[in-house]
Amino acid sequence: MPVFFAKGKSARSTFPVAAILAFAAATGAKTDEELSGGATTAFDTTREAFSLSARNLTDEHRAPFFVGHSFFNENWLAASASVSARDGLGPLFVARACSACHVRDGRGAAPEADLPTETMVVRLSIPGRDEHGGPKPDPVYGSQLQTHALPGIKPEAEVLASYEDLGGAYGDGESYFLQRPVFQVTHLGYGPLSSNVAVSPLSAPAVVGLGLLEAVPEKTLRRLAAQDQRRTDGISGKMNLVWDVAAKRMVIGRFGWKAEQPSVRQQCAVAFNGDMGLTTTLFPDENYTTAESFCTNLPSGGHPEVSDEIFDAVVFYSRMLAVPARRDVTNKIVLRGQKVFEQLNCSVCHVPKLETGNVPGFPELTQQVIRPYTDLLLHDMGEGLSDHRQVFEAGQRDWRTPPLWGIGLVGTVNDHDNFLHDGRARGFDEAILWHGGEAEQSKEEFRRLNKSDRAALLRFLASL
Amino acid sequence: MPAVGCKFVFVKIFPPVLMLLTVCVCRPPGTAAAADADQPSVEQIKTAFISHYAELLQAEYADAFELTRRMQTNIETFLKNPNAENLAAARQSWTDCREPYMQSEVGRFYEGPIDGIEGYINAWPIDENYLDYTVAAPDAGIINQVGQFPQITRDVIVGANEKEGEKTVSTGFHAIEYLLWGQDLYADSPGRRSYMDYVESSDGPGRHAARRRQYLHLLAELLVEQLQVVNIQWEPNQPGNYRDRFLSLPPDEALTKIFSGLGNLSGSELMGERILVPYTTKSQENEHDCFSDTTHLDLVRNELGVQDICLGSYKRLNGEVLEGTGLLALLDKTAPRLAARLQGQLKAGMAALKAIPPPFDQAILGDDSKPGRVAIKKSLDALKLQTASISKAAESLHVQLNLK
Asked: Residue B60's domain is classified under what CATH number?
């Protein structure tokens, strides 16, 4: 308000204007807390809260953003379609558009009991490693189940979720129930799965702020990992080391639930290929295995199906979605919850504040102070959350600390409150209660908090 | 709440600032002008604008509904007597429906009645292989896959659209467009589907003529029903419908919705999705009415939709002109220079869009000096300025508007 007024014509005297600016500067520390994504931050609490461009988007970047937005949101089509720029879907796929799972650029929901999975992928691997040290795919079904197919072709499988209740109680006696998902793979289209296959269902995460996370310097991640090594309480983050397809070497991973992708670019290419059956320069081969060789006779959407120009635009878009601003940062309960968050050591892994480095060509992402609440490192989260799947250096119980920015708006944007890798948690409280392994002690302290401190912590999380 | 604390601090430190804030709170911009009792106050103009907006939008939906019903009649006539003449009449009536419908798109983008159902009405792009044959796949589509879809029913057509993860597009204007025109494989004309596709024969597309007739029949029926659903929500004097609720919102909330529709249609949808994307990718057929080659008309009609709300004027199907308070009238009170600027930009935007030489799928091709691309670039520039002014207008009325 004061800032708006200062810009108006009515402020004739310069003194009040200067005073207002001084006031703004004096309280700067507080408003800074709101700027989760630095200068990219969008002040929006509508259903579009995850869908806005970085607010500092330069004029010449508007075109690639819109092009990326279009190809992220609209359906891909079966080849050969009249809209040839948009064809090549499948033959096997999980979704027809990025936005089918990342609904409004947001987060996928947990599958309903006894209904097939939507807005998530189901990864597969068998014991051993592939040529680059990554997970070894199932010989018939590859590294991800394709739950849909073009007309006339059998999908690979259907995956059904069911839930088991898991009772517990807070220190003050209040009881709770968690739900443990059990996934059943049915309607296998091409024979049995390997007997020793690991099946890992993963929800689509929100897309905001990815360019900023990519811009956090490697040395920051190394420093955070080194800091953890000096701890004596068991919290010990580590970096994943993964295969960079373009550079043909091992590099630090930072995207995906197990930090298995090194860059937004590779993440996008993997999703085009694995989730939609679309080829790119980075992944020029279709996503069926030799066991499904009948697919080779089908029409293609071009070589590659996603042209470099369109691929670049989708990568650009995925980097440039604004992070929503925090709300209620000076609310007393929120501030109390923030303190509890620190006292419980949540902030050791969910690191509140990071800085981005220089990103040539991307002034929007360069040298931003951001508040992602992640260290981008892998942590052992205990047996309760294990997906029994090793991904490079990420062990079966290891997960990358997911960023918490924007989680308070998932309900608004996506109409649900499902969190964790498979969406099993219904609300922040359940998500915390599932924490184990390195976070066991923090979880226990949360469980023993009094009711009002628990509520304050949840209120703080809702402000993110 | 925290602002109270801040003010308290000020009392001690900077009393003049507190005074200033007080002035700001007590006298919102514009109210000073209302001192003259003969003039309507800004609040009164706001209310008039909001209520006239509802009237215009409903008229657009009502006209779209009426024309879609006429299209349905023409389609039924064609299905009874498939011949070239009846096909041409059905196509013409499809194009006619688009005129009010594209204008009504200014009512999207704020979770109004249209937003929940828009995916059934105007979703794009169409997976034509999912509907019917293509040159590359003569047996493709629900129509020809008798084994997989023994009966063509509403459930088959609508069911495919339902799941969020699926998001298949098989209903609405563009599905009908495909069944009327077919693939556009030609630089110099739209799709050339023959009426013979709807006449039984022992080979070729006519093998499944009856199923194709059934599909088109159901598509027209569904579209009419869905437009009626939207229309009913905006009808006047219907307690509890959307219009009723909309008009009882605090004026600033209603304004936020109106601006969301204006800003998003002018910016991310018309300028971004519909013009900038095909202009940048230069992909022929990466345009909305790719089968009928009528995209250039859609663009003008979208702009007309923005203009209607700004000018407060809409010419109905029956010739009646609905005149009333538009956004410009409101701005004229609060930010007259901005009002004048926006008025000029609307004119320039319309002129620029009308100057794009059809068909749009050819105009986007070639290097940037080609007349088509020059004209499109001009439109993009004009719409950018127009959208910026809409944002400024929102700001001047204290409406929060975040555009993509």
From this structure: 1.20.1420.20
